[in-house]
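Sample log: Flagellar basal-body rod protein FlgF.
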Amino acid sequence: MDRMIYVAMSGAKQAMEQQASVANNMANVSTPGFRAQLNNFRAVPVVGDEAATRAFVVASTPGADLHTGPITETGRPMDVAVRGDGWLTVQTADGNEAYTRVGSLQVGADGQLMTMDRLPVVGDSGPMAVPPGASVMISTDGLVSAIGSGDPVTNVAQVGRLKLVNPAVADLQRGDDGLFRMKAGATAPDADPAVTLQTGAVEGSNVNPISAMVEMIANGRSFEMQMKAVKTADEDAQRANSLLSLTN
């Protein structure tokens, strides 16, 4: 059978996989702090004794779009947006550090400071907790303070400082959960005092819905083209069989 069928089938399969990635981006167009997944195709020549006239296609995900999303003022004291480059540090279920731009913070029932995904926010000395019922204030340099209900302003207590980091982009990799982690072998970054916050605001998704829609249409047409090639190869094979049967 002509390798054209296998080549077209591989193209259709990769177009479907890339469509799934673009659809995920589109689904998170309103998710705070979301970073769009980048997609690309690359050609892989078919190795064999024949002439190099065939090439498979492979979908690759070279990384994520790290451009800053739009920042929206909320007025909520526990909403923070990282200005420019930088990340908030959170603790994952396995106890390791991960990095996010999601700045809608909240206080759990046990007083622990968490993200909207209920991941503990890490400070300079580990996860942070505030006294139950206290009002929380966050400064632009990440300093977290708390004051009890009815207490005078002079009783403000410093809880700690958010661990704001700015590792090299080349050392980061995006996980399926949307969090970023250091690549294998890379050292966890220390807090960077140059990273600052905008309080009372959240950063939105950096997904461009128009671009995502165009990508979805292009992937759909690519899939249709590959399936047409499969059909053409099948029709050619049937005609060849008919001609061979006439010679017998």
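Observation: The longest helix spans residues 209-247.
Observation: The longest strand covers residues 40-45.
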